[in-house]
Amino acid sequence: MRGKSGQGRRSSRKKEAGYGDRPEPTTPSPSREKQPENLTSGGETAGTGKDAAPQLPKNAHPHRLDLEIRKELRTLPKFLAELVARHLVAAGDFLNEDPERAYQHALYARRKASRVGAVREAAGIAAYLTGRWQEALSDLRAARRITGQDIYLPMIADCERGLGRPERALEIIREAPIDELDVAHQVELRIVASGARRDMGDLQGALVELQCPQLKEHRARPWVARLFYAYADVLEELGRKGEAREYFSRASAVDREGVTDADERLAALEGLEIVDVGDDVVWSDAEDFALSAVEPEESKAPAADSSDQ
Fold first, then answer.
1. Which of 19, 93, 247, 267 has the most CB atoms at less than 10 Å from its CB?
2. Measured between alpha carbons, how far is 117 from 125 in angstroms, rounded to an integer?
3. Greater model confidence, 277 or 18
4. CA distance between the termini of the chain
5. What pLDDT sits at residue 44?
6. Residues 240-284: pLDDT tens digits?
């Protein structure tokens, strides 16, 4: 989660877990700690109802958390820092495969440590991935306020889209300190701006938002794949099939992490179907594949015995 923008658009639900870099917290760690009396075997405070903790997986170890986040958690009592760390690890692990489960872990961490930037970030991203736009907006704004970082702006603007406010999304993007963001987050803002234009029915404007020098990028980067994909998606909606085919192809070529479904979109444009054949994946015309998969009856007949001739 840390350091990611949530990829700045809602059209693809495949998102990245993981953590990036943050400045160390300036608040000193408390010197006095009080251990709770009713801990579960996993180190969690037993609870019921709303405060009940989701079950932690066995590999949710605090040391797996990014060092910068562990430093932020030092502002908490030791036992609480460890508990929150374990739920943040679980949230990160489940983020791709089970966003709802990730959300439950992040939500629990937020209930225990709502003033820690990394916790609000985790809760915001998990809420974002499960379509809880208002909740995500609140948490991501809090994370930005606590940390002073603008990397959350693509997701914040996209939440405004989710709430049906594309004009507000564009306003946030116009006010963003573009020069202070890295290229990846600049591109994410462009993708969100393009989506907002589409929400408003301005397809040509959506295309213009994506026309940037990074369209000439050749490196395999998740944000490059998303840029090509978004550009191809708008081109297809504009009826420019040939150009859309080119950019879906380019997205597929650089999408090493599977953040888009560019292969499927490209196959659809070509009138093909992606077919699994054992461990291989091939593109084939569906009817041709069906016919080739059936062995001709003649080949099944036994060979004639030459002695009968």
1. 247
2. 12
3. 277
4. 76
5. 47
6. 999 999 999 999 999 988 889 999 999 998 887 655 555 555 555
